[in-house]
């Protein structure tokens, strides 16, 4: 018996389950991803757009918000400079921080919020610019990337003081965190608060991010010729290649117009959602092989689920429901991690980057909602949350062809994968890479972070793949040192991660 | 092209590799297992014996070492009592400890060493007797089980003081650690130090362990009617069912002779080696699905390795070698754990049961070789080590039929599996259980340890299977609380582990 549910109605139950389990916690990146994938089976599924040169081209008039800006970009940069973040530790802050808004559409009043962390003073001029994007779609790069993953500070359990991340990426790069698209975190659409719902989708997100970047470079002109790398995780597996391709295409037009190109060197995406079919198949295979599912349930899925088909049998739907029920309430983003059982703030406890706290979301949300923190960040008073719910309008079922195009344009592509994440699993990513059929330059080998194996790597022609051993969905949260050494190798221009101990 | 190597020559390289990697560390349980399995391809492979009633029967005259014993068993028990272990913490030692030798063959002078830890005084008379056996074949239950896993004390990094294990199994049982067979740890053969090499094998080990138990019960007569459970891990997947069956068979003869039976209730075996075929297949499948091996290598193994066959193609041999080479130097017993990089003893550091120290072997070896410790344990001065090398004379390729027999004799069988051990993997154990084709009573469900999922369980008819989430090969080392709650449910007579949080 066949039902007419589309591809991923398997995941319908998932959101409900997570709603129950993490009822005290905020939405996570993949919860929003599930919403999106589920919506493929709705009456108004997102369009699956190809990414042609024409799609990516952005007319110059579109991003001239800097024409007659008042105040000037120079003044605006000065205004964006952060004196100090509330609760910031006295030691270990020998670098400059900026935060504020960049207008991407003056008519709709769409302003995107950024938080920029430079390298320590003597190195900022030599280090590259790294843009970081979190996924969702609809989740905050400030809440996740900056304050729980790769930024210089994390939030203590009191929700009001910060501690240092010794493995902050700003040690080797000037890191720009962007809340994208409008409607996420502190980013907004002024004139019509609903605007972003009508314009939200992969293409609009890439367009706004591109316009943001051009205008941001007007405000920070010393970075205009700098090497730029775009990084991100989860649904940023869509965002990053799409923004990169937008840059590549517009660089061609800029060359024609005799303008300087954006110096894009490479992209690095972690536990990225890049392909629906391998993503869903890899999810269920991972659950079984990691002893979270029964043989019986997996056998039914193997036999009755054709994830490429648009029609799904009821046996398959039941089996996939069982798959989620059987694993029970674990942290799907790190299957061996503890859950957050106590969501209250705690006084007189100091966090450590070596021991990821499963309640971090709670502390970060409290911190970013403090008026003095929003003021220090130059953010408009906002009820800030990690993720917003979106009606996503366009989203191709795969970005693998786009990744191939980037390789053809000599953009260095790294894909890494924390190997204890069940949601966008290393299994799924391996399946996706096999679809690309890239020639192997250096076959599977262990790579090293200090004196331990950091994970495994394969160097394909134009693309490096690396696992990160013992890391969950948010790789820098659970394995900060390994993530740091990986990104250091990437930014240093190595073709793949180091194959011997330090 | 086919070579005439037997079943497990795949593993030949493994021992060499481990020798290199862990050159500073002592042999582990599975290294000895590899030796054994490799020896199946030698000119003198161990015989694969069936276990019939006749094999298991031990004539009474065989175990009458207690006839005319001098000193009496009562005096011997008194002599075996441990005043205090050197470096033992003052608090948390409200229980009695004994250690010493029990003769199993007076002619050969074969004496087996035991360490016995009673429950705290008010409970020892109510709690059952639990015998613990480590694997190898040839590894010490004192070094592993008692001082690194489930015993009341662990050794600090100074190699001379102890700290408490809050999750010691003696809280709920009187625990008897046996160094078996003769030649392991403090156990020896007096008259002919080589005796154990000529008699070592599964059948001899079971016979000696049985005679030990009968004689030990003469020394501790208050336990003669007590409920007894036999537990162990790794190659004890052979030892435990074989000893249990020996007891079952001899109980029948004792009934005929109107003697009281040994009150055996159940067995629990962790990450047990029970079946060569599924064990080797499960090892390689685990390596691939946990992103430790390349797709290419796994595909070759899938296509060219028939682990049931006695002849192996050279393609298969190369592929299995690649499988071990590709994963590189990680701790195969816990694929996410750090390695021991500094094998020196450290002063002024206190260990914690919550944070397993990868250098524990070093501390334990130092401790058990201290003359005052050997004296306190009533052990003969010995150059003690975790594992001894054996020429193993008999070992069936599977004990699954024996496990079936035990179920038929109403012995409660629990099999548990730490899910991050690659050597005797949860995958291998699931494959082995599928061979048994037992009816499922309660299908796959998450079981709870406190408020977290401790792992997953299936209740078969007569057998419970439980995974232990985030535990390596030595389950109580890496997940002491989960192991404790699991064994508590087992000893409390539950048919399978608890299905809801505490």
UniProtKB/TrEMBL annotation, chains A, B:
E.C. code: 3.4.16.-
Signal sequence region: 1-27
Pfam families, per the entry: Peptidase_S10
Annotated keywords: Carboxypeptidase, Disulfide bond, Glycoprotein, Hydrolase, Protease, Secreted, Signal
Subcellular location: Secreted
GO molecular function: serine-type carboxypeptidase activity
GO biological process: proteolysis
Any GO CC annotation of this UniProt entry: vacuole
Entry keyword annotation includes Glycoprotein: yes
Enzyme class: hydrolase
PANTHER family referenced in this protein's UniProt entry, alphabetically: CARBOXYPEPTIDASE, SERINE PROTEASE FAMILY S10 SERINE CARBOXYPEPTIDASE
Family membership: Belongs to the peptidase S10 family.
Protein known as: Carboxypeptidase
Organism the protein comes from: Arachis hypogaea
């Amino acid at each position: 018996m066949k039902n007419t549910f589309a591809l991923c109605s398997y995941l319908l139950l998932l959101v409900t389950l997570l709603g129950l389990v993490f009822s005290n916690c905020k939405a996570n990146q993949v919860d929003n991803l599930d919403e999106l994938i589920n919506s493929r089976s709705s009456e108004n599924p997102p369009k699956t757009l190809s990414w042609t040169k024409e799609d990516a081209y952005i007319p110059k008039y579109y991003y001239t918000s800097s024409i007659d800006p008042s105040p000037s970009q120079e003044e605006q940069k000065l205004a964006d400079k952060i004196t100090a973040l509330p609760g910031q530790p006295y030691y270990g802050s020998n670098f400059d921080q900026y935060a504020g808004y960049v207008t991407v559409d003056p008519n709709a009043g769409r302003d995107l919020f950024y938080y920029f962390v430079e390298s320590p003073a003597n190195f900022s001029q030599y280090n590259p610019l790294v843009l970081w994007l979190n996924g969702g779609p609809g989740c905050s790069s400030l809440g996740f990337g900056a304050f729980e993953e790769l930024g210089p500070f994390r939030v203590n359990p009191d929700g009001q003081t910060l501690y240092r991340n010794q493995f902050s990426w700003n040690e080797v790069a000037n890191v720009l965190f962007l809340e994208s698209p409008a409607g996420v975190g502190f980013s907004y659409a002024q004139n019509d608060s609903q605007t972003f719902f009508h314009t939200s989708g992969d293409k609009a997100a890439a367009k706004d991010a591109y316009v943001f970047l051009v205008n941001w470079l007007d405000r920070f002109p010393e970075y205009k010729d700098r090497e730029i790398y775009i990084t991100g995780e989860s649904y940023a597996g869509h965002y990053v290649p799409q923004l990169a391709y937008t840059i590549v295409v517009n660089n061609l037009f800029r060359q024609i117009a005799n303008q300087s190109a954006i110096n894009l060197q490479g992209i690095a995406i972690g536990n990225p959602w890049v392909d629906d079919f391998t993503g869903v198949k890899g999810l269920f295979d991972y659950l079984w092989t990691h002893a979270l599912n029964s043989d019986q349930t997996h056998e039914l899925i193997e036999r009755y689920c054709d994830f490429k088909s648009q029609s799904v049998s009821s046996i398959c739907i039941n089996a996939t429901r069982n798959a989620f029920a059987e694993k029970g309430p674990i942290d799907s983003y790190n299957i061996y991690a503890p859950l957050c059982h106590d969501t209250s703030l705690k006084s007189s406890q100091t966090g450590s980057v070596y021991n990821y706290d499963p309640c971090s979301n709670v502390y970060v949300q409290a911190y970013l909602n403090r008026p003095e923190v929003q003021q220090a960040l130059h953010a408009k008073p906002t009820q800030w949350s990690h993720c917003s719910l979106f009606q996503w309008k366009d989203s191709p079922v795969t970005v693998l062809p786009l990744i191939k195009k980037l390789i053809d344009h000599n953009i260095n592509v790294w894909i890494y994968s924390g190997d204890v994440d069940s949601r966008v699993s290393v299994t799924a990513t391996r399946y996706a890479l096999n679809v690309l059929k890239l020639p192997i330059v250096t076959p599977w080998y262990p790579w090293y972070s200090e004196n331990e194996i950091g994970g495994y790597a394969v160097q394909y022609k134009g693309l490096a793949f690396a696992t990160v051993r013992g890391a969950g969905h948010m790789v820098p949260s659970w394995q900060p040192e390994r993530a740091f050494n990986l990104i250091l190798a990437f930014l240093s221009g190595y073709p793949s991660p180091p194959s011997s101990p330090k």
